[in-house]
Amino acid sequence: MTQPTDIRRDGTRPLLLDLFSCAGGAAMGYARAGFDVRGCDIAARPNYPFPYHRGDALTYLAHLITTGEIRRFAFVHASPPCQNKCTLTVGTNRSQGWGGTHEDLVAPTRELLDATGLPYVIEQPNGRAEIRKDLTLCGELFGLGVIRHRNFELGGWSIEQPAHRPHRGRVRGWRHGRFYDGPYVAAYGNGGGKPTVAELQGAMGIDWTDVREELTEAIPPAYSEHIGRAALAALAPAWEVAA
């Protein structure tokens, strides 16, 4: 496995590359865990809370590998789009016109991540079978106001799967002409009794963007903070030895 060249015993925060970064839900969690984060997204993301490169994530990653700049980084997180295999695509999200052309970028992302030699995470929602489900997280594990199951494939390292906590009730909203109340909000789309932006922010633990699309696409920072702390515990000793 490639060892980053700038991880030192002097307390330097390991540098993390956040690909397909959107508005920075994952980035904020990793920063809270102890990483220094740099993002990359093809869209303008003025709300992204850390430095980022605007451009195609895979092109950028290939450039970093070719030039050797990837060795600045200690860890990579990627949330590649794969809406063409997602059940939500044929429902609310497609009706809202979000996401444009639906592409499956999981396989090429994995291929490039393997080429970096660095430990990494690939994140995908439930309903997509393109990744190994090495870890599955749910909002209830962190006391959030969303269920929002997310699956994570881990490359070059591992983490213990926490026990799934039973949900406390239903997701609030309309189903087949009937309104159901519950302790969770539906963090997708924009109809059928969906939450307000303020409710989404509170449920997700995100307060630096008020753009609905960014909120509905985001990973709650609690998820990546959990992953980031585990990664630092597992990998930091090796980084320190290599420094």
Automatic annotation (TrEMBL):
The keyword Transferase applies. InterPro entries: SAM-dependent_MTases_sf. SUPFAM superfamilies: S-adenosyl-L-methionine-dependent methyltransferases. One of its GO terms (biological process) is methylation. It comes from Streptomyces werraensis. Keywords: Methyltransferase, Transferase. This is DNA methylase. It comes from the Bacteria. GO terms for molecular function: methyltransferase activity.
